[in-house]
Amino acid sequence: MNKHFQLTDVSLESTFSKYEKKFKALADQRRLHILHEITENGEVCVCDLSEKLQLPQSKLSYHLKILMDAQVIEKETRGTWSYYTLNHSEINHLLSEELCCLFRRD
């Protein structure tokens, strides 16, 4: 029995896929505005964001889901409202030297 297995660098592909999702989430002015509002206030409710960004709740929910899926924000539900905060560890990682080194030569 002589079996040959093809090895691929799954970790590198997985890493690129992860960052693709995060950077796509950040590549939109409305989502950047949402992140700015969360940064300025520390925590925001959908009801507050809808008024400030003048977006219907359905569109706001669409953008919040993309940011949640990219893990750059976190949600906490209290009663009937959802409150959003930055995922500081993920944001700090995206802005860190560690990530820059992935594409930088010395």
Q: What gyration radius follows from the Cα positions, in whole Å?
A: 18 Å
The ordered string of helix (H) and strand (E) elements is: HHEHHEEHH
Termini separation (Å)? 47 Å
Estimated helix fraction: 55-70%
Number of strands: 3
Strand order of the largest sheet: 1-3-2
Taking the sheet with the most strands, its summary is: 3 strands, antiparallel
Q: Residue ranges: pLDDT <50 for 5 or more in a row?
A: none
Shape: elongated
Strand share of the residues?
Answer: 5-15%
Which structural class matches the secondary elements? alpha+beta
Count of helical stretches: 6
Mean pLDDT: 88
What do you see in this structure?
- By secondary structure, the chain is an alpha+beta fold.
- It contains six helices and three strands; from the N terminus they run H-H-E-H-H-E-E-H-H.
- The protein has helices spanning 10-26, 29-41, 46-53, 57-69, 88-94, 97-100, and strands at residues 44-45, 73-78, 81-86.
- It has a three-stranded antiparallel sheet with strand order 1-3-2.
- A hairpin with a 2-residue loop joins strand 2 and strand 3.
- Helix 1 (10-26) packs antiparallel against helix 4 (57-69).
Write the layout of secondary structure elements.
Blueprint: H1 10-26, H2 29-41, E1 44-45, H3 46-53, H4 57-69, E2 73-78, E3 81-86, H5 88-94, H6 97-100
Helix pairs in contact: 1-4
Please give a quick description of this structure:
This protein is 58% helix and 13% strand. With 106 residues, it is an alpha+beta fold. A 3-stranded antiparallel β-sheet has the order 1-3-2.
